[in-house]
Every structure is written in structure tokens, then in C-alpha cells.
Amino acid sequence: MEWRLQQFISSAKKINSMEWKLKKYKSESSSWFAELAGAIGKGLMAGAAGTLAITLSQMIEMKITKRKPSSEPADAAQKVLEVKPETEEDKQQFSQQVHWAYGTSWGVPRGILSLLGLKGLPATAIHFATIYSTALIMPTQLKVAPPLKEWSAKEFVIDALHHAVYAIAAGLVFDAMSGD
Questions:
Q1: Helical spans, DSSP H, in the chain
Q2: pTM greater than the 0.85 cutoff
């Protein structure tokens, strides 16, 4: 009888220990999930701020250079999503929607970088490199932009500056929200 009582007590201690470990695991995973959700949320806000910044940068540049708005975002999305706006006005509106959705979503990687311990200038530099390399490769691969070898040095510089404006604005907003 005493042996069974000791066995019962021993089993109860093991169960209690497992429950404590499970609670600790749940607490740690909840904390990790909360950090991930926070980083994604802040990233989306930073991405929206970056999109506003690049939009203003492009508007100023278009006034100076007399360049017309690009249809590249709409053209790329049309190919990928198999969507066809009916009128030119619809295409411009669709292009703006794609521009804002795409730009805002690029804030998420900035949030993920923070979870990896990268903050400030290093995170902004990696964020810029990722965004700009994608901006150079994707449209040419979708054949909605001329091949890079046909771009002038001026086009590269202007495009790089716009994307730098985005990355810097998104980085500053993200770091400000994170208290960094």
C-alpha cells in the first residue's frame, strides 16, 4: 500500500512538473507570437509611411523631369493576377492600389529584421537592398520594364534614390515605434 502511495505521489510530481513546463512553453510561445504580431503590425505601419515617402518623392521627381506616372505596378499585377482594368482611369487607380499594397507589405520584412536583432542603419540597409534588388529584377522578369542593360545611369540613380527614400522613411518610423 505504501509503495502505491509513493508511486502515486511520484506520478503526481511528474505530472505537476510537466504541467509547469507546458505552461512555461505556452507562455514563451505566446510571448514569441506577440513579438511576431507586433513586428508585423509595426512593419505594416512603417511600410505605409515608406510608401507615402516614395510617393511624394516620385511626385516631386515627375514634376521636375516631366515624367508621366508609371504603369509598371499595374502591368506587373495584371500579369501575375490575370486582371485587366477596362479603362485608362481604371488602370491608373489599379496601379495606385497595387503601389500602396505592395509598398505597405514591404514593411513586414523590416519587422522581421527586428526579430532577428537587426535595428537602425544595418536593418535599413538590408531592407533597402532587398527592396531595390526586387524592384530591379521582378519587372524585367515579368517583361513590364525594359531590360536593365537598356537603363541609363540617370534612371538607375533616380530609381535607387526613390527606394532609398522608402527604406529610410520606413526604417525611421519602425525604429521610432520600437523605441530604438
A1: 2-65, 72-81, 88-105, 107-115, 120-141, 153-178
A2: no
